[in-house]
């Protein structure tokens, strides 16, 4: 199997990581493209002593680390999410966020994450703890849950409340979700794709976003329906069955880029 064939299944998830790391689909995709260009230009330098996915993320991290720290974007190119991210980044080390995303969202072990960001495993654990603490201190939101499985909905609601957020309601259909959102505007939406009456959580989210902007996290057993390569793709996507730590990380990261919880300069 060629290197390209080995890497292809992992590219949608690397793009997800790039989007979450930068807060921008276009900006994240630029780093992914640069990663692929670097591999094509010098395939002999690709890490062959590790799993292909680990080597792919290692290459991405090398490019990110070599350009991001000192990069100054043109103010005209900075959107609202990036402006919020910059305000938060002033209060947090980039390594902490990378450690959090790589472990909790991308599912890498502490040891693999240590390899990817070039620190010790104990440092990774400390960085993750620091990131969660800092983001949770900065962000508080009112959350709408769109989920038709009662046990899963209760689990998500517990996670949300444990993080210090308020739940505005739990919807099980598209119409109910839209009605709840219009009646009590949330600051974050957690949505399943397939709902109780065979309606679509995707359609519910589109209806809500047609009325006002709000960060959205999809939690679904069918991630391939959203990771299609078409625009726009969701920045935050969690696959069922999920780990509680993954949901916590996604909530923290989604609110990290949200204007309504932006830190005051």
From TrEMBL:
Modified residues (4-aspartylphosphate): 192
UniProt entry tagged with the keyword Secreted: no
Family annotation (InterPro entries): Bact_response_regulator, CheY-like_superfamily, PhyR_sigma2, PhyR_sigma4, RNA_pol_sigma_r3/r4-like, Sig_resp-reg_PhyR, Sig_transdc_resp-reg_receiver
Xref: Pfam families: PhyR_sigma-like (PF22233), PhyR_sigma2 (PF22029), Response_reg (PF00072)
Record carries keyword Transit peptide: no
Domain Response regulatory: 142-255
Keyword annotations from UniProtKB, A to Z: Phosphoprotein
Protein name: Response regulator
């Amino acid at each position: 199997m060629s290197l390209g064939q080995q890497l292809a299944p992992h590219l949608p998830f690397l793009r997800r990581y790039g989007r979450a790391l930068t807060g921008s689909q276009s900006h994240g995709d630029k780093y992914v493209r640069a990663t692929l260009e670097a591999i094509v230009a010098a395939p002999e330098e690709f890490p062959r002593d590790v799993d292909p996915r680990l080597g792919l993320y290692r290459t991405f991290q090398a490019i990110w680390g070599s350009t991001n720290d000192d990069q100054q974007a043109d103010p005209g190119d900075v959107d609202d999410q990036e402006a919020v991210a910059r305000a938060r980044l002033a209060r947090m080390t980039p390594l902490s966020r990378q450690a959090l995303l790589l472990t909790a969202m991308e599912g890498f072990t502490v040891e693999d994450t240590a390899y990817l960001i070039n620190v010790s495993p104990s440092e990774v654990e400390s960085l993750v703890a620091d990131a969660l603490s800092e983001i949770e201190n900065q962000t508080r939101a009112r959350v709408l849950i769109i989920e038709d499985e009662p046990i899963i909905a209760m689990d998500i609601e517990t996670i949300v409340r444990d993080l210090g957020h308020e739940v505005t309601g739990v919807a099980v259909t598209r119409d109910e979700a839209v009605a709840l959102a219009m009646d009590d505007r949330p600051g974050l939406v957690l949505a399943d794709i397939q709902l109780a009456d065979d309606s679509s959580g995707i359609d519910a989210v589109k209806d809500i976003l047609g009325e006002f902007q709000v960060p959205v996290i999809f939690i679904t057993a069918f991630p391939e329906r959203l990771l299609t390569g078409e625009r726009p793709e969701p920045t935050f996507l969690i696959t069922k069955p999920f780990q509680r730590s993954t949901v916590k990380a996604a909530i923290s990261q989604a609110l990290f880029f949200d204007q309504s919880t932006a830190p005051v300069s």
